[in-house]
Design a protein that fits this description.
Helix content is 76%, strand content 0%. The chain is mainly α. The chain folds into 2 domains: 210 residues, no CATH class; 245 residues, no CATH class. The longest helix has 38 residues.
């Protein structure tokens, strides 16, 4: 098993090194300076191997620290919640979400495909060694930070040591059940494609993690230890089942099919992506429009793809409505809950900047536009004319703003009502600022994602992402929103600043699209 793990680790580092070299060759300024023979360079591969090891260390430790800081500590600090029990409450339920959505064992990753399908390594030996490594890495990665942050919020050191054991045990229980449920090899769990029931349970667990602490309800330390002990015992029995399970090869042949993992050649990858999108198209030839030109073209596209483009926005709207409605009812029934909710709404508007970034559907819509329209149409010269590009951009922007406005309107209307139910404010203009700033954020992200798509169009004809600047710009947006989340600024000041910035940014962005999009909106090589 140790030799198998060494081979698997070398394999993983090799394709990461090649991916690193490929990334360098994708940068416009230096790609012509790097020949294809670079893939055979031992010096660069050694450097890439070092980068791979550093990334492994980064994901083991830094990733866990960022997770605890962003998902738990920042929420406690911003909302000024009781730290000890709130830390346990959020950690407990987020661990359940992580156990359901990220089992590691059922993640159809490239290293599993290479090892099991291409190299025909022994499935049981490979998967067990890989899973053991994952559990050890998870425990070691969490331990120093559960001790650091846990003791910092007042937890006993024993509880802090139990927390990473709880994480590993819960994932093991989920994996054991998934193996048992998949033992016939026909219906196999896929971390990349969670089922509807898993999504519903995950949403319920997220709500249970964050909502009760605002109203004074959280898991106590003794209750957490009792529940953790039960899970750890169950994890021990589950690990024994995983260890003695024999049908790994049959299950993973099903999991690692081409439609589940994009490892095939360019033609098959492109075909698989198109098939997945086409399944969601409404093939109703009676759909029509009274518009003309590119307005007609865009409206027909939006109607036929409404299932893809609006479904998630409707689901998010419903979830937002249920959460805000529940919060309002709790504020009306539990007077003690009003203070925390009121403080959050009056001083933590930057938190909702991250929420609006998270629910923005613009990037998904842009990917759908490319997969179902632009990847073919951009091969025609007439489609790349400035007039056509700008006309279609304007029409698409209207639809993206309208789609994002569905959940945004629910939040923008709900937050002032929640503010009123939690005790209100001495400055009535803050109700208006709260509503307008949320809608401004929604419009900002709608414009931002479409502008990036037109100025940095990242895809080639095979629907592979070849634009590193596009990924960098998206990552930069995420980190700005993330770091803003932990800031405590009055709603009036931050809201007014957000509105003014959004107006200015939208004006500049639209001007850039008008000037540059006819040159930049094209297929990548």
């Amino acid at each position: 098993m140790i030799n198998t793990f060494k081979q698997a680790f070398k394999l993983r580092n090799t394709y990461k090194a090649n991916g690193f070299i490929f990334g360098l060759k994708s940068i416009p300024l230096i790609k012509k300076l790097l020949p294809n023979s670079l893939y055979a360079s031992r010096v660069l591969k050694t450097f890439a191997d070092i980068i791979g090891v550093l990334f492994e260390l980064f994901s083991t430790f830094v990733g866990k620290a960022v997770y605890l800081l962003s998902m738990i500590i920042s929420v406690i600090q911003v909302a000024k919640l009781p730290s000890t029990n709130t830390f346990l409450q959020i950690f407990f339920f987020l661990t359940i979400v992580g156990g359901l959505l990220n089992t590691h064992l059922f993640n159809p990753s490239k290293d599993k495909y290479y090892a099991l399908i291409l190299m025909r390594m022994d499935a049981r030996t490979f998967l067990l060694s890989d899973y053991l490594y994952f559990l050890i890495k998870t425990f070691i990665g969490f331990l120093p930070f559960t001790l650091l942050f846990g003791i910092g919020v007042g937890l006993h050191p024993i509880t802090c040591i139990v927390m990473p054991l709880f994480v590993c045990a819960l994932k093991t229980i989920v994996n054991a059940y998934a193996l048992f449920d998949s033992r016939d090899g026909e219906k196999v769990k896929n971390d990349s494609l969670p089922s509807a029931i898993v999504i519903v349970i995950s949403i319920a667990m997220l709500t249970a993690a964050y909502l009760p602490p605002f109203f004074g309800y959280s898991i106590t330390e003794p209750v957490f230890l009792i529940l953790s002990a039960l899970v750890i015992i169950g994890g021990g029995f589950s690990f024994a089942y995983i260890w003695h399970f024999q049908s790994y090869l049959m299950i993973f042949r099903t999991l690692l099919k081409p439609e589940n993992i994009m490892i095939t050649n360019k033609e098959n990858t492109s075909q698989t992506l198109r098939q997945n999108y086409h399944k969601k198209i409404t093939a109703n030839l009676t759909l029509t429009s009274n518009k003309s030109g590119y307005k007609y073209f865009n409206e027909i596209f939006m109607k036929r793809h409404s299932r893809i483009l609006t479904k998630s926005a409707k689901i998010i709207s419903l979830i937002a409505f249920l959460i805000i409605s529940t919060a309002i009812i709790i504020c009306l029934l539990v007077p003690e809950a009003k203070t925390a909710a009121n403080s959050l709404l009056l001083n933590a508007l930057p938190f909702f900047l991250f929420v609006m970034y998270f629910i923005n559907r613009g990037e998904t819509i842009a990917a759908s536009m490319f997969a179902n329209c632009d990847h073919s149409m951009l091969t025609y010269r007439s489609y790349r004319q400035p007039k056509a590009i700008l006309s279609l951009f304007a029409e698409r922007l209207k639809y993206i703003v309208a789609i994002n406005a569905m959940p945004a309107a629910v939040i923008a209307l709900g937050l002032p009502l929640l503010l009123f139910a939690s005790g209100g404010t001495e400055n009535p203009i803050e109700y208006v600022i709260l509503f307008v700033s949320i809608m401004a954020m929604s419009i900002f992200f709608s414009v931002h994602t479409l502008v990036l798509y037109y100025l940095l169009q990242p895809y080639n004809i095979q629907m592979e992402s070849k634009g590193p600047l596009y990924a960098v710009a998206n990552s930069f947006t995420y980190f700005v929103c993330y770091f803003a989340m932990g800031k405590e600024i009055s709603t009036f000041i931050f809201g007014l600043g957000t509105i003014l910035f959004c107006v200015l940014y939208i004006g500049i962005s639209l001007l850039l699209v008008y000037r540059l999009a006819p040159k930049t909106f094209k297929l990548r090589n």
